[in-house]
Write a structure and sequence with these properties.
There is one protein chain. The chain is an alpha/beta fold. 23% of the residues lie in helices and 19% in strands. It is built from one helix and nine strands; from the N terminus they run αβββββββββ. The strands form two sheets. Strands 1-3-5-7-9 form a five-stranded parallel β-sheet, with no helix packed on it. The longest helix has 32 residues.
Amino acid sequence: MRRLRSPALKGRWRRPAAVALLVLAATIACSAVVITASNSVPATNLLDQQNDPSWITLAPPQCSSLALVGFVTGNGNLTGTNAAQLMLGRGANQTIQGKNGNDCLLGGGGNDSLNGGGGTDVCIGGPGTDSFTASCETQIQ
């Protein structure tokens, strides 16, 4: 003999299954949000040119005899250290001052004041009217 299911009984099983499916979907969605939220992006050295050895390719041929070990750039006035550095000015009027290392100073655009400091320094002005101190052993406008 064949058993017939009542339509009321059939509907009762569908509701709990639908609720369980919704709870499962919500759990998966929340887990994805939690996993994504716990990921962190490590710090980058993108703007830290000191750690990027490719900065040496910015040095002009006039500075090839210098054993440059550091790189300084930025807007505003620049002051180097006692190490031999490539100091790269930007487009504004700047004062670029090396210290005791054998430095390569590049003025960039603007009316720059270049002061090599101690050591044997190469100072290259660039566009604009630039001034050089006597500590720039090589001066190129």
